[in-house]
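Field log, afternoon session.

UNIT: design team B
ACTIVITY: writing a sequence onto a fixed backbone
BACKBONE:
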């Protein structure tokens, strides 16, 4: 596996947006007061470098070359943009989140009431290693793990196998790496800016998206977000190599990715025809519609997800509500996205093929296309414009 330093390797998008002190926020998410670092037309693709927070945090020394060097990583295999961000930016660990997000991106024509559709066309690992962390008593077993006051960060090399890339772990700290699990990269954070002049904390997700940690958002999937401010001001970050639903130890296998994403404005009239009145995030894969429920109480998150699923089914296919409720109980899985981000997440997997015999209404599209199927609308632009301030 090669290391993808800034600007190196394949950059297939119409635009390229690097990660650096002038194009990222650390610990906070964009709001309406932030200036865009890139402006694009609806339908364009952007190849975006994302940087994992693992290896740059204060409790890891805020020096990624030193941190990863202790695990045998050569200095040239540590990302230069991670080094620059750690050296140039700061955050308040008591009040800010850990995540680095690249953006915001202004999408021309996006207005409140519209949806922003973000299609994941390509995700490429930038390094052959990642980190899984359980720190500061956080995770599903608060007060039980980690044992002791110090954070636990598990360095996890990635290796190639005939079936693809795998993460490797030992059975004991000093043992051979004989436990392997497949990689399924996705971006834990995808969002749009909130109204007002206060940047949200990067950890809890919300109607704006943010730190959703929905592992279904792999290549080919799309995320629909209600636009909150003109231009949407989209951003992405918190890259994952792999995650189990629940993300119980606090983090998944966190590691930097190069993402190529398509940003499209879905006008309000079309959005209403497609999904009804969306007030929160909705994902779509080649098989499922994925409404979400978000709340600090897991039971309430489940109720919100069921309500969102009912609303989508009744709006999209015209099914009576009591019949949709019965259908969900018989045919739809409700999965725990994560229980560690202050606000818990539940997502439903509604099979679109179950409604394949329902006559298609005008304005309602079929399942999301495969990666790379949409045509390019312009040549790639290599320079970001209007840099914003840093968090």
């Amino acid at each position: 596996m090669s290391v993808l330093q800034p600007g190196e390797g394949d950059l297939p998008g119409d635009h390229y947006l690097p990660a650096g002190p002038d194009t990222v926020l650390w610990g906070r998410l964009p709001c309406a007061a932030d200036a865009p670092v890139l402006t694009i037309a609806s339908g364009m693709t952007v190849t975006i470098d994302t940087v994992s927070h693992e290896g740059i945090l204060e409790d890891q020394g805020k020096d990624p070359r030193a941190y990863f060097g202790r695990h045998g990583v050569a200095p040239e295999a540590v990302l230069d943009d991670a080094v620059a961000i750690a050296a140039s930016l700061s955050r308040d660990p008591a009040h800010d989140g850990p995540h680095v997000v690249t953006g915001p991106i202004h999408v021309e024509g996006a207005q409140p009431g519209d949806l922003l559709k973000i299609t994941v066309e390509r995700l490429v690992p930038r390094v052959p290693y990642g980190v899984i962390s359980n720190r500061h008593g956080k995770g599903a077993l608060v007060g039980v793990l980690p044992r002791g006051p110090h954070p636990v960060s598990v360095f996890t090399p990635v290796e190639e196998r005939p079936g693809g890339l795998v993460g490797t772990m030992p059975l004991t700290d000093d043992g051979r790496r004989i436990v392997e699990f497949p990689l399924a990269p996705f971006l834990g954070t995808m969002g749009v800016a909130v109204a007002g002049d206060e940047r949200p904390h990067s950890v809890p997700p919300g109607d704006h998206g943010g730190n959703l940690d929905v592992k279904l958002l792999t290549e080919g999937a799309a995320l629909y977000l209600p636009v909150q401010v003109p231009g949407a001001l989209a951003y992405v970050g918190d890259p994952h190599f792999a995650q189990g639903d629940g993300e119980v130890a606090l983090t998944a296998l966190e590691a930097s990715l190069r993402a190529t994403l398509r940003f499209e404005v879905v006008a309000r009239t079309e959005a209403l025809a497609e999904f009804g009145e969306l007030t929160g995030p909705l994902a779509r894969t080649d098989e499922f519609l994925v409404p979400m429920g978000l709340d600090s109480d897991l039971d309430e998150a489940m109720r919100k997800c069921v309500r969102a699923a009912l609303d989508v089914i009744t709006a999209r296919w015209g099914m009576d509500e009591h019949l949709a409720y019965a259908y969900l109980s018989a045919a739809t899985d409700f999965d725990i996205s994560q229980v560690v981000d202050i606000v818990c997440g539940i997502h439903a997997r509604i099979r679109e093929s179950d409604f394949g015999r329902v006559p298609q209404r005008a304005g309602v599209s079929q399942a999301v296309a495969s990666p790379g199927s949409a045509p390019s609308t312009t040549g790639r632009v290599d320079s970001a414009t209007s840099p914003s301030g840093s968090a």
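LOG NOTE: The longest helix spans residues 298-317.
NEXT ACTIVITY: expression trials, pending approval
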